[in-house]
Amino acid sequence: MQLLDFPEGGWSGWATAIGAFLVQFSTYGYSISFGVYQDFYAQTYLTNETSSAIAWIGSTNAFLFEICGLVAGRLYDRGYFYHLLYGASLLQAFSLFMLSLARPDNYYQVFLTQGIGSGCAAGLLYVPSMAVLSHYFNKRREQLMTFASSGAYLGAVVHPIMLNNTINGQLGFANGVRASAGFVSGLLLIACLLMRTRLPPSDSRTNFLAAAEKCGRDSAFIFGCLGLCIFVVAFYYPLFYLQLDAVRHDLGNTFSFYSLVIMNTASFVGQLSSTVLVVYFHVPTVLIMVTFCCSVIILGMIGVHTVAGFIVFGVLYGYFAGIFLALWTPVMALLTPDLSELGVRMGIACAAMAIGGLVGPPISGALLTPAYVWWRGAVFNGIAGALGCTMFIVMQRILIRRVQSQSQELKL
């Protein structure tokens, strides 16, 4: 397809971009607000469970969010966009309303609804909502993808405020979760009305095994996926444990409740600024810089004990984490020379991230122990983040050599 075949906007294009923004707000934005639930469950609702066991709820949600992208990518490539959009939106609404019925100290009820149901719904929505932007945008595809993904962190600002002030307030857990579920359901309904495909499914159906084998021969893609897998182990640590950390340091409920909001607000700013950064710097270069900064900041969490320290940590980590969240999808697009394989490659990348998202938070919870020894989690996750950054450096070097080799061939 020629470049001029892309409308680069139009009513349908911009409506689809806004719809994708709302999907991210209502799914991934909700998932990365799990720190509110981690604190509430540990302190009030699931007091018979350890922090590590509670973290399995959020990590399973994160795992299914990523792993379902593998299925969603294949279905999207085969033309099932609307089936995924409508079906998964209904599943997200149903799961959150069912969560409101979970009883105190009934771990399995929370795990099934929030860990499995909501995780599957979010995963089935993510890849299609991002990949469909390639129907309308080519030159500005990376910028539009970062715009859409920024909805996740705006959601991660709004959802903690709403949840902390409802489940910890007069409404209580059941009615607070119902209010949140109604809000999310309304936004997903708007997204379903806005989003439209433009191009028919490819006549040549992408064979998953063939595409996976092709990916297995792409060394840059392999190191990119390794980097995502390892870095995500560290990525979720502050998202899950920052609010609980603030509570355990006796910084007051008001500040503790807004510690996640501070971090996620900075993340939203980071996601928006990423659209500017990718104009002036190569996407892999920015990705390397922000993952390195995140790793150093997580190590610095060892010395965070005061309100000022939590604010500085939240702003810095949130800003760089927001850029990371915005850029991993454009990196996958950059590593995909054939757009007919975009859904499959994004799905494989999601599966790689799923492994890190599944094991990271429970390991961190186990390292904390019931005595909450915070430095252990900071050291482990700081090292994991740095190792993930190293994988991205290798990925970039391979890409540079590939471009240089292609340039030499053209000269010949």
Automatic annotation (TrEMBL):
Principal place of residence: membrane
Native species: Boletus edulis BED1
Assigned keywords, A-Z: Membrane, Transmembrane, Transmembrane helix
Protein name: MFS general substrate transporter
PANTHER family: MAJOR FACILITATOR SUPERFAMILY (MFS) PROFILE DOMAIN-CONTAINING PROTEIN-RELATED, MONOCARBOXYLATE TRANSPORTER
Matching InterPro entries: MFS, MFS_trans_sf, Proton-linked_MCT
Locations listed in the record: Membrane
Record GO cellular component, one term: membrane
Keyword Isomerase tagged: no
Claim: Transmembrane is one of the keywords in the record: yes
GO molecular function: transmembrane transporter activity
Membrane topology: Multi-pass membrane protein
Family under the similarity heading: Belongs to the major facilitator superfamily. Monocarboxylate porter (TC 2.A.1.13) family.
Short name of one Pfam family: MFS_1
Segments passing through the bilayer: 12-33, 80-101, 107-132, 144-162, 182-199, 220-237, 257-279, 286-304, 310-335, 347-368, 374-395
